Amino acid sequence: MGDLTVPLNAYGVVLFAHGSGSSRLSPRNRFVAGLLQQRNLATLLLDLLTIDEEQVDLRTGHLRFDVNLLANRLVQATHWIADLSNIGHLPTGYFGASTGAAAALIAAAQVPGPIRGIVSRGGRPDLAGTFLPKVKAPTLFIVGGADYSVIDVNKKALNELHCEKRLEIIPGATHLFEEPGTLERVAGLASDWFENHLSVERRRT
What we know:
Layout: E1 2-5, E2 12-17, H1 27-38, E3 41-46, H2 51-60, H3 67-82, E4 92-97, H4 99-110, E5 117-121, E6 139-144, H5 148-160, E7 165-170, H6 182-198, H7 200-204
Parallel strand pairs: 2-3, 2-4, 4-5, 5-6, 6-7
Antiparallel strand pairs: 1-3
Helix pairs in contact: 1-6, 3-4
C-alpha cells in the first residue's frame, strides 16, 4: 500500500522506504515528503510489508531487518511507477530511513533503469552489504551528530560506495531527528539533493 502525491509541474518522483517498525504514515517521512512536494517532486510513501506481515513483525521484529525482502518490494514499486502514464517518464529517486536505507541501496543496484539519486536519513546502509559497490546513483547519507553508532556504520558504508557520495552530520540530532530544527535540516538537504540530481535542466541552469 502506498500514498502517491503528484504536484502539477512535477519533474521527478521520489519513493520512500520506511525504517524499522515504521510505515508510510511515519510523521518524519511525511514531513520530508511535504517539502519535496512543495519543490515540485512527486512522492510515493510505501508500506513495504503487508498488513499480515506487519502483525508478524510486531511480535518478532525480524521482517523489518529483511532488507532483501524490502528491496524487492521497492523494486516492484519502481516498476509500477514506470508504467504510469503521467509520471512513468520522470527521473526517479529513493529516500530511505533506518533499514529502509539499505533496501533503497539494494534496489538501486538491481533495477534495470537508472535511479538518479538516493538519500538516507539515519540509515543502516551497512546492511546493504555487497550491493554497496554496485550502486551508481548519487547518494547522500544524513546522520544525527548524537547518533554515534550510526555515524560509524555510515562512514564505513560510504567508503564502500563507488559513486558520487556525501555524508552530512546534523549537529545535536539524535536518531529520530526530534530536536528543534533538525528534521527541517534533513528535509532541506534531501530536497536540494534530489533537485540537483533528478532534473537535467535544473543542473544546467
